[in-house]
Write a structure and sequence with these properties.
transport, Rossmann fold, disordered N terminus, ATP hydrolysis activity, ATP binding, nucleotide-binding, 23% strand, 6-stranded mixed beta sheet, ATP-binding, 254 residues, 9 helices, binds adenosine-5'-triphosphate
């Protein structure tokens, strides 16, 4: 997938701070997401992982600092420039957020209807390719109520990929899945990252997933109100830089 920004990071967060009202969630968070990697945001409940994701896709503005994504700044971009940037970001929310009255195929066709002028047959063909990529070719005509939780996540990923975004954000992809289904989803994410060159930003606190898919991660911490670790998750597990990181990895593996 061609990303015109060349060797520049896909996402750059520079001294980003965020809070709501008087409450500070995190301060001075700085990191780069490189092209083609699976980047994981981890940390305990309420530390601000989802908020950081929302900052990256322009749903919130940071209280200080700056986030650039694909060379643009969503806190400043307006009109057509903002729309063009948003079009290049795929997001799968925790719930999967499929429309219950539509088949999986129709769900995946939705972004193509909203953002392209492709005729119906072409939209359908593209949507079928996306469903094929996530292993759901045989389920195209099913309704969300007729499929398992793991299939719903896959369909959510297919829909998020409809417009071939160079960056895909996944919010807690393993939430609500049994370990076997979750491991299957991890495999899919790794395959897509490798085969399509898509950059993934994944919010999760599932240790097995973090270790299975993460090329690099950052860890946020509620008490520290900021980022307390960055790097290869296997390295952080084996050589934790502080007690909080050690406890996070031990607690979950025990
Ligand atoms: N729009 C908002 N207005 C006010 N407070 C908010 C808003 N969004 C999130 N918060 C608060 O900020 C804190 C961090 O929320 P966030 O969802 O980012 O955490 P998280 O690390 O993703 O947590 P979890 O793992 O439990 O989903 C929470 O206490 C939440 O209640």
């Amino acid at each position: 997938m061609a990303v015109p920004e060349g060797g520049r990071p896909v996402i750059r967060a520079e001294k980003v701070s965020m809070g709501f009202g008087q409450r500070v969630l995190f301060r001075d968070v700085t990191f780069d997401v490189k092209r083609g990697e699976v980047f994981v945001i981890l940390g305990g409940s309420g530390c601000g992982k989802s908020t950081l994701l929302k900052l990256m896709i322009g749903l919130y503005r940071p209280t200080a600092g700056r986030v650039t994504i694909l060379g643009g700044d969503l806190a400043e971009a307006e009109g057509e420039a903002r729309r063009n940037l948003l079009r290049r970001l795929g997001v799968m929310w925790q719930s999967g957020a499929l429309f219950g009255s539509m088949t999986l195929l129709e769900n995946v066709m939705l972004p193509l209807e909203a953002h392209t002028d492709l005729p119906r047959e072409a939209r359908e063909a593209v949507a079928r390719v996306k469903l094929g990529l996530v292993g759901l070719s045989d389920a195209a005509s099913r309704l969300p109520a007729e499929i398992s939780g793991g299939m719903a996540k896959r369909a959510g990923i297919a829909r998020a990929m409809a417009l071939d975004p160079p960056v895909l954000f996944l919010d807690e992809p393993s939430a609500g899945l049994d370990p076997v289904t979750s491991a299957g989803l991890d495999e899919l994410i790794k395959d897509l990252a490798r085969d399509l060159g898509t950059t993934f930003v994944v919010v999760t606190h599932e240790l097995q997933s973090i270790l299975a898919i993460g090329d690099r991660c950052i860890m946020l911490d509620k008490e520290a109100q900021g980022m307390i670790a960055e790097g290869d998750p296997r390295r952080l597990r084996d050589e934790p830089p502080n007690d909080t990181v050690r406890k996070f990895f031990r607690r979950e593996t025990a």
